[in-house]
């Protein structure tokens, strides 16, 4: 139970999903939580939450980087203000430790990090109340919802390893492959995905994204935001036994 510290059943209701029935049997009556009933439900819920194949609901949609690569600057720039994107890192040790700004380059949008979520540059904006131009944070989002219908995407998803631009593929492949003997475990996994894409490029002449497409609004997120107080916890057990493409499964 990774995200659950304790189980406390206040109310319960049982619905029947029979694979042989045309429709599910939905119950409107709450159970009387006597000691035996409570123990039965508790053990069943605990068993479900401890299952090795347990999958948690997703509360977000899949995203890809939205930053733009500048060939002239050789770094990423903001898609809105067009300014160079930076990250702040520390160098040195102890009293000699100091902070520097570095441009975001090829490897800085593999995954979402604190420094690559929004643009940290300042932009000029007219303040009607002060009747003058003032500097305000750009805060443009540097990640956008993934759209499976998007044509000519410049980004490639390497499974769980993250994202890279198509134009950077050969350079990154050569870099990782040349250092293959000294790579750590995480970098080896990244190289393995690059090698898979390299084989795909040889066979088909192109590289697919390997992304699942848009998940604009998850059901779990809708329930959490729109049905507050109606559902505390929803457990769907033995769904693999349901016949696909039926009213019951839906």
Measure the end-to-end span: 27 Å
SSE run: HEEEEEEEEEEHHH
- Widest sheet: strand ordering: 1-8
> What is the helix tally?
4
What Rg is obtained from the alpha carbons, in whole angstroms?
Answer: 25 Å
Q: What quaternary form is this? A: single chain
Shape: extended
Q: Sheet with the most strands?
A: 2 strands, antiparallel
Q: What is the helix fraction of residues, given as a range?
A: 10-25%
Number of strands: 10
**Overall pLDDT confidence:** 83
Strand content: 15-25%
Low-pLDDT residue intervals, each spanning 5 or more residues: none
Structural class by sheet pairing and helices: alpha+beta
Structure description:
This protein is an alpha+beta fold. The protein has four helices and ten strands, in the order H-E-E-E-E-E-E-E-E-E-E-H-H-H. A hairpin with a 4-residue loop joins strand 2 (68-70) and strand 3 (75-77). Helix 2 (169-178) crosses helix 3. The chain is extended. The relative contact order is 0.14.
């Amino acid at each position: 139970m990774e995200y659950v510290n304790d189980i406390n059943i206040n109310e319960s209701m049982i619905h029947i999903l029979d694979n042989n029935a045309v429709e599910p049997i939905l119950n409107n009556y709450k159970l009387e939580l006597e000691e035996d009933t409570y123990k039965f439900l508790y053990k069943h819920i605990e068993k479900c939450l401890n299952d090795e194949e347990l999958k948690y609901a997703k509360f977000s949609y899949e995203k890809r980087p939205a930053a733009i690569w500048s060939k002239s600057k050789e770094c990423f720039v903001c898609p809105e203000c067009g300014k160079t994107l930076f990250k702040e890192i520390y160098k040195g040790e102890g009293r000699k430790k100091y902070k520097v700004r570095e441009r975001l380059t090829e490897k800085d949008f593999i995954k979402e990090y604190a420094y690559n979520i929004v643009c940290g540059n300042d932009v000029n904006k007219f303040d009607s109340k002060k009747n003058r131009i003032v500097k305000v944070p750009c805060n443009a989002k540097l990640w956008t919802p993934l759209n499976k219908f998007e044509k000519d995407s410049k980004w490639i998803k390497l499974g769980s390893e993250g994202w890279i631009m198509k134009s950077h593929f050969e350079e990154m492949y050569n870099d990782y492959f040349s250092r293959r003997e000294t790579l750590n475990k995480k970098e080896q996994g990244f190289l393995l995905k690059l090698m898979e894409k390299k084989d795909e490029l040889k066979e088909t002449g192109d590289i697919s994204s390997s992304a699942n497409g848009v998940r604009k609004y998850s059901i779990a997120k809708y329930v959490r935001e729109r049905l507050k107080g109606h559902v505390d916890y929803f457990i769907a057990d033995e769904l693999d036994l349901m016949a696909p493409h039926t009213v019951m499964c839906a």
